[in-house]
């Protein structure tokens, strides 16, 4: 069984860590802290004051919102290695979405004061954030397109492919530890419909549903798939 990384290991393996000086990295390691949140728990709430940047050490988190009548819409899932919430920190505004765990998760939190210190003292970190925001924008544009134009099978394919973004989610492996229920939540489908889509994609040789997750066999094929 694969050993989960420690908080320090998770920080050092983050995409942005290599661009920091030793002094800045030491400041990050000294001020970041870890929190365990069980499945279905809130990592953050819509409307709260944003006081930290959030990273996923293990588990998976979905960013979503609820309508007044209780209907939920999911924006994206964040696997281990991903960090989110930089937009609200940069704009100094209250958080505009909820984030909930899809399974038991270990969360890294970087205090806002540390985040802004990096922003003010590291040009490479600032460049990283520009890339992060650009990748996130592209992800959300693709999500809107998928939701409005694509059939459920193709939405599931694109949903899984979107998790393989080397900038946003550098730590994800070809065996994605995700359940069929979670695929449904992230792709806007029921569990049953997501299962049907996975069967279609498996027959196409693009993935294999394994015990404990989904093994991606042809990532480029998933990105190009259209039913």
TrEMBL record:
It holds the Pfam family HTH_Crp_2. GO terms for cellular component: cytosol. Keywords: DNA-binding, Transcription, Transcription regulation. It comes from the Bacteria. The keyword DNA-binding applies. SMART domains: cNMP (SM00100), HTH_CRP (SM00419). One of its GO terms (molecular function) is DNA binding. This is Cyclic nucleotide-binding domain-containing protein. The lineage of its organism: Bacteria, Pseudomonadati, Pseudomonadota, Betaproteobacteria, Burkholderiales.
């Amino acid at each position: 069984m694969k050993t989960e990384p420690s908080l320090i290991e998770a920080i050092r393996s983050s995409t942005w860590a290599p661009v920091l000086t030793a002094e800045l990295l030491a400041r990050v390691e000294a001020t970041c802290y870890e929190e365990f949140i069980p499945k279905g728990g809130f990592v953050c709430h819509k409307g709260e004051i944003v006081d930290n940047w959030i990273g996923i050490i293990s588990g998976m988190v979905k960013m979503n919102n609820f309508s007044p009548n209780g209907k939920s819409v999911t924006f994206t899932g964040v696997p281990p290695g991903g960090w989110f919430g930089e937009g609200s920190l940069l704009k100094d505004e209250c958080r505009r979405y909820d984030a909930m765990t899809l399974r038991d998760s270990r969360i890294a939190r970087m205090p806002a004061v540390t985040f802004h210190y990096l922003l003010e003292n590291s040009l490479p970190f600032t460049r990283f954030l520009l890339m992060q925001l650009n990748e996130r924008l592209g992800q959300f544009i693709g999500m809107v397109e998928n939701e409005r134009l694509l059939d459920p099978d193709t939405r599931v394919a694109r949903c899984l492919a979107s998790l393989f973004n080397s900038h946003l989610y550098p730590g994800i492996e070809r065996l994605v530890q995700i359940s069929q229920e979670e695929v449904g939540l992230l792709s806007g489908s029921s569990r049953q419909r997501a299962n049907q889509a996975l069967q279609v994609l498996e027959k196409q040789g693009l993935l294999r549903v394994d015990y404990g997750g989904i093994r991606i066999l042809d990532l480029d094929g998933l990105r190009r798939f259209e039913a």
